[in-house]
Amino acid sequence: MSRLFNRQTSCILLLHLPPESIVIVHRFLVASWLLCCLAPAATPAAAAETGSIRLAQAAQPAQVQPAQTPAAAAPGAAADAQAVEEPIGNVATVTGNASVTRNDKAIPLKVKDDIYLNDVVQTAANSSLGITFNDATTFNLTANAKITIDGFVFEDGGKNNAALFDVARGTVAFVAASVAKTGDMKISTPSATLGIRGTTGLVEVPEGAAASSPNNVAVKLYPDADGRVGRIEVNDRAGLRLGFLTQGASGFTIRPGSGGARFAAVPLVISSQQLLRDQGFVRQVHSTQNFGRRVITEQRAFRRANPGLLNPNRPNRFGQPGVLRPNGPQRQNNLNRPGLQQQPGLPNRQGLRQRTGSPAQPGVQGQPGLLNRPLLQQRRPAALPPKRLPRQIIR
């Protein structure tokens, strides 16, 4: 009854309107009817689309976590590996009692014992000690002598070889080798520093020697075993040149200077008795060098054949930055360190898998959404059946 009433009312209204208004009203009614018909049809399609999205999100595989890197080595083992230091020389001869101060304790020395950087070696009364270093430089300490190995860098064929030995007291004979010939070798004393340029020499430091003492350091130059004579440059502790020796069996004594000079190198007159004594020291150091070369070769071969056998008296340098392994390959920092995890976002992260359905992008994770999901497909809304338009009734 209501539909008939509305139909009749519409017809009555249309009869009283002009033709232009009738067309406008007809279009408005058709549009309203289409909206009412499309709303129920779109609702199932939207619901189906929402359901498929939820299904795809629920079926999406969980994000794969990066594979864990292997556990790092135990701190104790890593510290031991970093603290291992190769020796720079060996004991060639010992007579009486000699010791080395290392790791804050005195250790008795015997033939073939290792010598390390920063070692302090000394002899007791009526004792002597011969040490040969890796380049064949050799020192022979007489009774009550003391020296410190402050620096030693040697690489066969290298151009940056250097050595620094400090003679604190006693009589010490030396014969220089590769470091002095290819690099920079120095011997320091309480009042002078000596530049050694490939030669044999003798250094005497009396007990209590000091800058103000009249009985001070004596430096002497002697020929090598083959008869060649090298050169010794004599400087004060500040590096000021005091003189140099180039003639065999010659020497200086270092004394307080005059006329404002702090030190002076005074030519030394060597008596025949002193010459005989010194020649005995020189022959001894040359003999020690020959034997020391064999000891160095044997001990190097022994270490290579037994890499896991560590010296229990080796230096303990834990917590000291910048300590390098003399005469060994230097490590490169921060390269190819085992157990190092790469930071998120960096390319080529180990253990991270690419998700299927998305292009391979190194270091980039796919974001949740509608794109690149394997279970989600774009759905088109279902086609609507054609609707019959109401007939216009004109009376």
Describe the biggest sheet?
17 strands, mixed
Portion in strands = 15-25%
Secondary structure tally, helices: 5
CATH class of the domain at 88-305: Mainly Beta
What is the helix/strand order?
Answer: HHHEEEEEEEEEHEEEEEEEEH
N- to C-terminal separation?
A: 21 Å
Helix fraction by DSSP (H/I, runs of at least 4): 25-40%
Q: Would you give the CATH topology of the domain at 88-305?
A: Jelly Rolls
CATH architectural category of the domain at 88-305: Sandwich
Radius of gyration: 47 Å
Outline, from the CA principal axes? elongated
Spans of at least 5 consecutive residues whose pLDDT stays below 50 are: 1-5, 7-15, 52-59, 67-83, 321-378
Report the average pLDDT across residues.
Answer: 75
- Strand element count: 17
Oligomer: single chain
- Helix/sheet category: alpha+beta
Summary tags:
395 residues; alpha+beta; Jelly Rolls; signal; 24% strand; elongated; 17-stranded mixed beta sheet; 5 helices; single chain; disordered N terminus
Brief rundown of the structure:
This protein is of the alpha+beta class and 395 residues long. It has five helices and 17 strands.
Describe this structure in words.
With 395 residues, this protein is an alpha+beta fold. Among the domains are: 1-32, no CATH class; 88-305, Jelly Rolls. The protein has helices at 2-15, 19-59, 75-83, 178-182, 272-305; strands at residues 89-95, 98-102, 105-108, 114-115, 120-123, 128-133, 138-141, 146-153, 162-175, 184-188, 193-196, 200-205, 218-222, 232-235, 241-245, 250-256, 263-267. Residues 1-5, 7-15, 52-59, 67-83 and 321-378 have low confidence and may be disordered.
